[in-house]
């Protein structure tokens, strides 16, 4: 059962990583697009520079937030797998089920 729990945790981790990668890419794309197209909002050069800087900063900070969120989520997934293993072992031991012990040669 431990193997099943860890395989399930690995699958959830893979989906979580895929979701986080998509969010990271989307935020980076939004920041870059905003920085490149800041001149569409105004024609004043100094304002365009500030808007471009703000969009690039938004993209960078957003990507950092996604990475930190991914790391916290990954730790939660790992902690959940450890807790599920502990609960499984506790339930199995209370029920009296022990793994079969080898008793010698087969006859």
Question: Which short descriptors sum up this protein?
Answer:
single chain, 107 residues, mainly alpha, 80% helix, rod-shaped
Please sum up the structure shown.
The protein is mainly alpha-helical and 107 residues long. It has helices at residues 2-36, 45-95.
Written account of the structure:
The structure is a single chain. With 107 residues, the protein is mostly helical. It has one domain. It contains 2 helices and no strands. The protein has helices at residues 2-36, 45-95. The mean pLDDT is 87.
Indicate the topology.
Blueprint: H1 2-36, H2 45-95
How many structural domains? Answer: 1
- Percent of residues in helices comes to over 70%
Overall outline: rod-shaped
Strand content: under 5%
Q: From the helix content, strand content and strand pairing, which structural class follows?
A: mainly alpha
């Amino acid at each position: 059962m431990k193997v099943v729990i860890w395989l399930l945790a690995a699958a959830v981790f893979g989906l979580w990583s895929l979701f986080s990668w998509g969010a990271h890419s989307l935020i980076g794309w939004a920041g870059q697009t905003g920085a490149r197209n800041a001149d569409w909002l105004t024609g004043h050069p100094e304002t365009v520079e500030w808007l471009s800087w703000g969009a690039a900063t938004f993209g960078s900070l957003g990507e950092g937030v996604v990475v930190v969120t991914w790391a916290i989520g990954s730790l939660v997934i790992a902690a959940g797998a450890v807790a599920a293993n502990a609960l499984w072992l506790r339930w199995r031991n209370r029920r009296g089920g022990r793994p079969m012990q080898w008793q010698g040669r087969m006859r």
